[in-house]
Please model this.
Amino acid sequence: MIEEIVFAGFGGQGILLAGKMLAQAAMDDGLNATWFPSYGPEMRGGTANCTVVYSDDEIGSPIASQYDTAVVMNQPSYEKFQPMVRAGGRVLVNSSLIRMDNSRTDIEVIAVPANEIAERVATNRSANVVIAGAYLGIKPHVKFETFAAVVRDTFGAKGEKIVAPNLEALRAGFEAVRAEAAKR
Model:
């Protein structure tokens, strides 16, 4: 099994952090993992993306030209990375900020209103954790509990007032895609 994912959005949306946490959780679950960030010189407001590759075997390259899954948080990222998803792959879309065209019938497009969910259960700064939880709900290679432990480690120095809402955001994203899948 090998999974190649791109996380993409604006700088400041926590895109790189979400990808880094996924790579760490994959390693904690005993998988091989790479994390390859890419961002413009603008930082906040500029484009940011990272490629995460995890596998139960050796990984030949930390970069990919096509992806199994694209996790996109803004319109420019959707337009850029949706065409780069392999046939049979998935695009996980922050539907709070993206107008989807559904022009491809060979991929699954999953809408998650990450910003709205984050504002409801935590803070608007947790939309990246919501979308990461949604990813865990559609691709169960990495255990939810392992990712939750990475969230605790990542935000632990900031105290429980930051850890608890991020764990709520993670669970809310996970449950949102599970609830949608149950309706189908």
Remarks:
- Residues 160-183 form the longest helix (24 residues).
- The chain has one domain: 2-183.
- The longest strand covers residues 85-94.
